[in-house]
Amino acid sequence: MARSGLRLFTRCRAERGIGREIEADGPGTRMALCVAAFEISPWKDLFVASAGASAALAGLVFVAVSINIDRILKFKGLPERALETVLLLLSVVLVSIIGLIPGQSHVALGAELLGEALLFGAIIATLLKRSLPPRSSPQSWRISRQVITAAGTVPLIIGGASILAQSGGGLYWTVGGIVFAIAGAVGNAWVLMVEILR
To answer: In whole angstroms, how far apart are CA 42 and each of 28, 96, 99?
Structure first.
């Protein structure tokens, strides 16, 4: 067969620190594609930056809550939303710390990220359910809250599972979860600091 010489295989190239290589060999054809989705080393600086940024934002949220604590306690669901905001940022800090632990295997890294994501995802989902706007409010408000929260938690779960399986987007899912978790937390912080005073 014309394509009998085609070989497709995947292997990790830790010695070059570039993660996973997909190589295909055939008559007159050689293709190599290397991606960093499963190799932690190229992501170290990003994890350092995200840990610092999310920790600073968490501190600002604590200040905002302490300043507006009387108003927050008067509104049903706002205390839960404040805790949800802190947990979104704390999850980013923990994911970043896990990513900075040296010498981990992909199994250890994936298991730690998946466990952290499942735990925080379950807690945040419970808080979200308690803090959703009443059914009499516009449906778009409820949907937007659910979508934003899911975007900051679900990709972290997928990322951990992907690293364990060594298939899929790997750490790209994790970074997506980090970005949306920070964005969602900033949106909640705006409500706790500004919108609550209107």
So the answer is: 32, 13, 11
Position of tokens 């710390």?
97
Question: CB neighbours of 57 closer than 8 A, spacing ≥ 6?
Answer: 89, 182, 185, 186, 189
User: 103: how many CB neighbours lie within 10 A of its CB?
Assistant: 6
Separation CA 84–CA 70 (nearest Å): 18
Average pLDDT, the chain: 81
In the DSSP assignment, the letter for residue 134 is P
Give one word for 161, left, alpha or beta, with left for phi > 0 and alpha for psi -120 to 50.
alpha
**Token pair listed for 97:** 């710390």
Per residue in 7-26, pLDDT (tens digit) is: 333 444 333 343 444 444 44
Identity of the amino acid at 46: L
